[in-house]
Protein: Kynureninase
Organism: Paenimyroides marinum
Amino acid sequence: MNFQNTRAFAQSLDAQDELKKYQTEFEFPQVNGKKTIYFTGNSLGLLPKSAKKYIDDVMNDWANLAVEGHFYAEKPWWDYHERFSAPLSKIVGAKPSEVSVMNTLTVNLHMMMVSFYNPTSTRFKIICEEKAFPSDQYMLQTQVKFHGLDPKDVIVEVKRREGEHNLRNEDIIAKINEVGSELALVLIGGINYYTGQVLDMEAITKAGHAVGAFVGWDLAHAAGNIELKLHDWNADFACWCSYKYMNAGPGSVSGYFVHEKHHNNKELHRFGGWYGHNKERRFLMEPEFTPNEGALGWQSSCTGVLAMAPYLASVEMFNEIGMDALIKKRNLITSYLEFIIEETAKETGTNLEVITPKNQSERGSQLSVILHGEGKELFHYLMKEGVIVDWREPAVIRLAPVPLYTSFEEMYEFGQILKKGIQTT
Ligand SMILES: *Cc1c(COP(=O)(O)O)cnc(C)c1O
């Protein structure tokens, strides 16, 4: 498509947008009495209006039924988490029995490490990405120390090549082959949070298995953003948070996936608890732990129903739309944003370098842009003008036009504000 940097052209794209009606189903923050242009749905998604009703229902059941709500609420609390299996499985490409929700992301990664990282004297290494999200680094380091090992001997980071912003899949695979029989686990972000690069999860998973390692994925930036086929890719496990693209609210519960091939493996360690215990027998208060079938057998505690409620509202909206329609709009709006950035760079004579891969299969919604020669005043200017972006030193902004609630006209408007900002700050 030949894009144009005009309001009329952007409006014509909005007129053809099949997801347009969803924009009014979200609450937007306001700046100067005007709806903001919200680019940080990759960090904290907007509030779906329907979430309020889901929370109110739980509050009302609590008020009216108290303890009886566990069994007699309209959506009973004791198995509320099971409502996620079917809709979430479609979003991450899994079987319903392979997914559930509990805890938060870093905690779930720790829980998965219990099952999938059991180092021996010969097989103990972990491959991860250089500069992974800090929580993942801390998680890995402390897990390794918990096993009495030194992170320096265990954690192998795959690095970017000199002068390149993105990782190469071939370099990750080469590193997997090099570590070979010493490799216990590969654990990487399916999308890099900083650059927005999508890795070739299928090929990396295959390479990890070929040398006898487990392969798990942190999908914080991937769930609800890109097409995932966790079952077919044969990933061993994956975890994601729900408050980024999935709009479930600050600190809401994390989703997790355990491949069905592991469901009956009694060798795998688990940190059990009563909610992981055989559901039919949960309230018999038996002394010995017998896990539920499927991913539900990795549960431990009862999960906060108030935290799950907005997530349920959100996954139901995702299912109504379907990932295909979301991805179709995502590709178009992200490409249009990229075009607007290129045009603004030309018009202002600035080097605005998009470091996210150009290839649509290697990116999701997010574009990360280096604003060469610009300083933090530009960020403050954008925020003051109601453009909510995320700033990382040195002069990188991350922009995520979220297909559910971002319009093409907002991309045009952003270009105009950015241009003014570059000229005046
Ligand atoms: C957002 C994010 C987290 C956050 O972890 P929480 O446990 O939910 O606080 C962790 N890892 C990655 C890669 C992230 O993007």
The first helix runs from residue 7 to 15. Residues 104-106, 133, 135-136, 189, 193, 218, 220-221, 241 surround pyridoxal-5'-phosphate (CB under 6 Å).
